[in-house]
TrEMBL record, chain A:
Annotated Pfam families: WCX, WYL
Domain WCX: 263-332
Species in which this protein is naturally found: Mangrovactinospora gilvigrisea
Protein name: WYL domain-containing protein
Coiled-coil intervals, chain numbering: none
Domain WYL, first and last residues per copy: 165-227
From TrEMBL, chain B:
Record-given protein name: WYL domain-containing protein
UniProt-listed InterPro entries: CBASS_pafABC_assoc_protein, PafC-like, PafC_HTH, WCX_dom, WYL_dom
PROSITE patterns documented for this protein: WYL
Domain PafC HTH residues, every copy: 7-123
Domain WCX: 245-316
Coiled-coil annotated residue ranges, if any: none
Organism the protein comes from: Mangrovactinospora gilvigrisea
Source organism, top-level taxon: Bacteria
Length: 340, 322
């Protein structure tokens, strides 16, 4: 039966952590059963397979936080590896019970697999290190308990189902340019974009990427759910300067119509349209069953108004009236509405 | 969630943990690591296969009788049992989440302060590994005042009175609700037992028009947290018997799939989509069709398509068109 991957990774980690000098690949292969049992032996047919496996394992250990340094193995003069104690030690860290409980709540908000695993792994690490007190958080009045009590009050969740999330997070962290196919709102076909990723932001439950769009030579914001297919990392570094402060929300909010440029006047049937009324600049009763309301007029208002059908009547400006009429004509199936 | 990387991470922590606690109890260790006892036993089966060299006979001599865990050569393993530094992913995961939670309006002051202290300590301990966390930001929309009242009702176990806006019916109704918990998935929701509907319901806090904490003690039917839905797959889970609706949208209406749970979305030749979904409240879809205008239409059921057309015609009549 094949040796489980976790066992192989664990053995590699322990060998590297226990080493007092750099260990060459050859030495590691001889020490670790999962490698030694690969058919062929050094120089054999599976040398390439071992090399690939070893490189991947090293990357995996780095992902979970092990700092692996390289040097020359004194035994055979080849490149050797070791994980020095000084580079891998957790500094002293002591958390009070309520701090630990707060952190435990935060650790549970991720739904994205990689970060959910990292968050609970970090808690285990802190608990093992005694950062939550010496009972390890398993006794009376411990974080584990308070965690449970706290959960009755607030259950925040960060969604991240977009497959591009992992790659973009790493690229932004390592400052590497990426290429992906992106479907702009309303565009029939996706187009290729090359972007220097700055930051990812989750707003209203959706993820956005802000970065420098190389083809448009300007900052742009992308919605992750509109990325089609794979994100590819490109060689080379960033060409544009990364701003000290990246405001993804401001950009998205402007697009969502929160940056109004004019004022609209509409009639609203009494008692309906509460969401519109919460945005109203002014509101007064008009004749019959109508109220007259002034609204900030920005991108997207026509669609917001069309939803209310016959309960809304646009008084002005003319441009907004025409837009709402176009929505209604299309919905009523009036001929030629598509070109309105 | 037990992939090899997560398990390796856990095994390394387990080694640190066990070295400090000879004879640790299986039940306690499982609880501390937030895993089942079966998962822990699985880990304990892997550890004796691990060592600094399988040929040197220096494998970790860890065993268990199912109740307690013993490590017989722990002293020899000093170098591998030291607490490990925080990795970049781990720092990102904890710090980004902690900052988002700390920014929730309506969070209790004591909790907010504790979280801020924890974040500061963690940033220091993580060092360079913490820097990547500034590339991610999460904002929860929690609707401050409604949140604070709902939170107070929860901690004092009292009933809430709400004026609540129903989106589909475009009306405001009054209701009394026994709060169960607050859930944040993009927007923040109050989950509670609605005394009007006599059912568990979700209320979006930004649709709460008015809220008051009543003197009446809350009396929701007993429910265990673990029995409540996780909402991981979205808040609105259509039921099997909800009516099936088919929409066709143009390229400008593709966003519908991002906001509505749907069963299928087929590509159309013009770059649009044919979307099949089940709707608990068809009124929501009538509003959606009006919002889409030329970017979409209801294909079926015909009654819904007719309803959209009638509403649009009535609206047009008010503008002097018919």
């Amino acid at each position: 039966m094949a040796i489980p991957k976790a066992e192989r990774l664990m053995n590699l980690a322990l060998c590297l952590m226990n080493a007092r000098r750099p260990l060459s690949k050859r030495e590691l292969r001889a020490s670790i059963e999962a490698y030694a049992s690969l058919d062929g032996g050094p120089g054999g047919a599976d040398e390439a397979a071992f090399n690939r496996m070893f490189e991947r394992d090293k990357e995996d250990l780095r992902e979970l936080g092990l700092v692996i340094e390289t040097g020359e193995s004194p035994l055979d003069g080849e490149t050797g590896y070791l994980a020095k104690r000084a580079s891998n030690r957790l500094p002293e860290l002591a958390l009070a019970a309520e701090e630990a409980a707060a952190l435990a709540l935060a650790a549970r908000v991720w739904q994205q697999a990689r970060l959910a695993g990292a968050a609970s792994g970090a808690l285990q690490k802190l608990r093992a290190a005694g950062a939550f007190g010496n009972n390890g958080g398993a006794a009376e009045g411990s974080p584990a308990r308070e965690e449970e009590g706290r959960a009755t009050v607030l259950e925040p969740r960060i969604p991240a189902h977009e497959p591009s999330f992992d790659k973009l997070m790493l690229a932004a962290r390592e400052r590497r340019p990426v290429t992906f196919a992106y479907r702009r709102s309303g565009a029939p076909e996706p187009g290729t974009r090359t972007v220097e990723p700055w930051a990812l932001e989750c707003w209203h439950g959706h993820w956005y990427l802000a970065g420098f769009d190389r083809d448009r030579e300007d900052a742009r914001v992308f919605k992750l759910s509109r990325i089609v297919g794979q994100v590819r990392t490109r060689s080379g570094g960033f060409t544009a300067e990364v701003p000290a402060h990246v405001d993804v929300r401001e950009h998205v909010a402007r697009f969502a119509g929160e940056g109004a440029t004019a004022t609209a006047r509409v009639r609203l049937r009494r008692g309906v349209g509460w969401p519109l009324r919460t945005k109203a600049l002014a509101e007064k009763s008009a004749e019959g069953e109508w109220d007259e309301v002034e609204l900030p007029y920005g991108h997207g208002l026509a669609a917001d108004l069309a939803e209310f059908g016959a309960d809304v009547l646009v008084l002005g400006p003319e441009e907004l009236r025409a837009e709402v009429l176009a929505h209604l004509r299309a919905a009523a199936g009036v001929k030629g509405a598509e070109t309105a | 969630m037990s992939n090899a990387i997560d398990q390796t991470r856990r095994l390394l922590s387990l080694v640190t943990y066990l070295r400090e606690r000879p004879g640790a109890r299986v039940a306690e260790v499982a609880r501390a690591f937030n895993i089942t006892e079966a998962e822990l036993m699985g880990d304990l089966a892997v550890l004796p296969m691990c060592g600094t060299s399988f040929r040197g006979g220096d494998l970790l001599d860890i065993d268990t009788d199912g109740e307690r865990i013993w490590w017989h050569n722990a002293d020899a393993a000093d170098t591998v049992a030291r607490p490990l530094r925080i990795a970049a992913d781990e720092a990102t995961a904890l710090l980004v989440a902690a900052r988002a939670v700390a920014d929730l309006p309506g969070l209790r002051r004591g909790d907010r302060e504790a979280l801020a202290r924890a974040v500061a300590k963690l940033e220091t301990a993580a060092g360079d590994a913490a820097s990547g966390s500034s590339r991610l930001n999460v904002t929860f929309e929690a609707e401050g005042s409604a949140f604070a009242e709902a939170d107070r009702a929860l901690s004092e176990r009292r009933r809430l009175w709400l004026r609540y806006y129903s989106y589909g019916r475009d009306e405001i109704t009054e209701r009394e609700v026994d709060p169960i918990r607050l859930v944040t998935v993009g927007h923040t929701y109050l989950e509670g037992f609605c005394r009007r509907a006599e059912e568990r319901r979700l209320f979006r806090l930004d649709r709460v028009v008015e809220i008051k904490v009543l003197e009446t003690p809350a009396d929701p039917p007993p429910v265990r947290l673990r029995d409540l839905p996780d909402y991981a797959a979205g808040l609105v889970q259509p039921a099997e018997d909800d009516p099936v609706v088919v929409l066709e949208v143009g390229p400008g209406g593709r966003w519908v799939t991002e906001y509505f749970a749907h069963d299928a979305a087929e590509e159309l030749p013009d770059g649009g989509l044919r979307i099949t979904l089940r709707a608990a409240e068809p009124a929501n879809l009538r509003k959606l069709a009006l919002r889409l205008g030329a970017d979409g239409r209801v294909v079926s059921p015909p009654e819904l398509a007719d309803e959209v057309r009638e509403v649009a015609e009535r609206a047009l009549a008010a503008y002097g068109e018919s």
